[in-house]
Amino acid sequence: MAFLPDLGPEGLSERFCAQMRPVFGRAPEVPISAPRAVCSDGDALFVADMAEHNVWRCLPNQAPHIVAGTGQRGPGPDEPQGAPGTDVALEYPHDLALAPGVLYICELYAVRALDITSEPPMLRTVFQSEYGLGGVAVAREGLVVALHSRHMLALVDNEGREQILAGTGHPGPLLSDAPALQGNLHNPTKVAVLPSQDILFIDAGNRALRLLQRASGTLVTLSGAIDAPDGLALGGGGCFVAEGRNCQVLQFRPSSPGREWNWGTCAGTGFCDASCVGDSVWQGLGESMQRRRPALETQLRRPQGLCWVPGRGLLICDAGLGVVYLAEGLDAWAWHRDVALPRALVLSGRAKLSDQAEEVLKLLVELPDEEFRLVLSWWHEVDWALEEERRGLKEELEQRQQRIQEEKNGLGYDQERVDIILRRELDDEVLALNVGGEFFFAKRSTLCTYEGSYLANLFSGRWESSIERDSYGRFFLDFDPSCFRQLLNFLRSKRLESQRGGPARLPKVPEEKVDQFWNLVEYFGLTEQFQEAEEAQSSAPKVSESTASLFSSNLLQSALGALRQARDRRREEGGQWSAGRKKT
């Protein structure tokens, strides 16, 4: 598919006129750090600051204020029920869902309900889990919760009872049109409920946008090529997904039945330079501000939480800049960054592509919407036919490349050896980490000791750009450094296990740090591996104290005997031993 740039004020900008402006962000009176989730009923705006463990509320003509959280990380859901929200310490709030009179807050291991009709707003726990949670959405029957580290979707009713809707409890590859309870999910995060009660969700581990059809109980893949998705919202005839690592927001729209949805960039430039600084002042969603910019020319650093506000536009949380933006004017045809011309047009007009494209696009701008849709539909069909031809050429090219590869192998070219050397260089790379303010240095291979774990995937080299860094470029992890040190030392011992001739010993964690340590183990997906290590350690033969003492005594006696023999030989050779000792 060929994409042509906008034509400026005379052309597509009048049709694709989406604008963005900041509506909430850092200020002296608003010490927000990293807004991770946002929701709004059209007037009030709620923003979850995950790093500061609190939730803000913004009302028109009022100063923003905190309605939940103390600014300190809480111990989890074991908090008093029915307490004022500002008296309860939250634990990494990262998703919000709004129902009439109630704001649902998704934390690391719990979902809380904040009564926003009372003053002060009162907070209670409605669901808690031993597994990490990814997101929450309001459904007709209760709440839909993404069990992130359990790889499932669950429905929680008003009594707190849990019903599994999708997933087997084990991560697995992407498989479309599978029965929901037999299809594998991989770290689901954000969820949204359609008017039909079908469930749209992000399958983050599989980099996919998926749909759970409640009537048929089937999982359908709508898109399987989203890079590091985080943030989901329904609206505008489709849905929006934030690609934090790519600094942009995508809009998806339904395609023909049986095919993946169409998509395009609706906000962000796809990159963010160091000079990009967020700015905003809360004046209300309906207020007019002068700092409007074209949505596709606005740099985003790490877009995450999204919320569609009917009649207003799309709210975008930029956790990197500490700003919440409002994108306005996302109409039915502003969902794609540029008009897509078929390859036939591009190939036939290479010499005068720019001139021909401008003439064609100017004619399109003047077409009525219905005719405009018909033309785009025809282009889509032509491009699909060319895509089939391209696929055939690609297969032929791959066959030729395979023959060339076989010839190289016949001449002694060993690709496997090259891969091993390259992998060894990657494994030996030393990484610098800032964990809770303390600095650590570790080989990549140590952090990736357990393949398939979340820790290994995080530092495999593929997803590192999504990890937050400090001002010196070190990877920043907001965990207890003493617990991380115990975990890192265990991984180092595990790497040397074969040389030591015995299983790696579990770290001795201080009693007051046990809960934090095991929470860290579970977060990095190492619980099963630690349990196996514990079983191996308990089954290993133990050396009694008497045996150890006897061994030490025998070793000492042998050493003293050897020393006496050496001294006697020196004396026989002329007393040099004694003379030497006297001189010193």
Automatic annotation (TrEMBL):
Residues 427-500 form the BTB domain. It holds the Pfam family BTB_2. Gene3D superfamilies: Potassium Channel Kv1.1, Chain A, TolB, C-terminal domain. GO terms for biological process: protein homooligomerization. Residues 562-584 are annotated as: Disordered. InterPro entries: 6-blade_b-propeller_TolB-like, BTB/POZ_dom, SKP1/BTB/POZ_sf, T1-type_BTB. Residues 565-574 have a biased composition (Basic and acidic residues). Signal peptide: none annotated. PANTHER family: GH08630P, POTASSIUM CHANNEL TETRAMERIZATION DOMAIN-CONTAINING. This is BTB domain-containing protein.
